[in-house]
Design brief:
87 residues, mainly alpha, 78% helix
Length: 87
């Protein structure tokens, strides 16, 4: 294993851990909001708004970590450099 591969693996591990921390905080805060809703009025389900709004962010975070290209290919680097510096 090269040093570059090792650094890439470390970045992936950190990204995955970061996502799970984000998800845990999302779950805990929103569970607390639902509990507050249930213990107060129980009427209009207002926690739906933070659940949906923040949920979009959690899904986007998951997609960025678990879906899509995981490694940067030489072809991608070449295309990027051509776009920046021309042919």
């Amino acid at each position: 294993m090269t040093d570059e591969q090792r650094q890439w693996a470390i970045r992936r591990i950190r990204a995955k851990r970061g996502f799970w921390v984000h998800f845990a905080v999302y779950f805990a805060v929103n569970a607390l909001l639902v509990l507050i809703w249930a213990m107060t009025s129980g009427g209009y389900f207002w926690p739906v708004w933070p659940l949906l709004g923040w949920g979009i962010g959690v899904v986007a975070h998951a997609v960025s970590v678990y879906v899509g290209p995981r490694e940067i290919s030489e072809a991608q680097i070449d295309r990027e450099l051509q776009g920046r510096f021309g042919s």
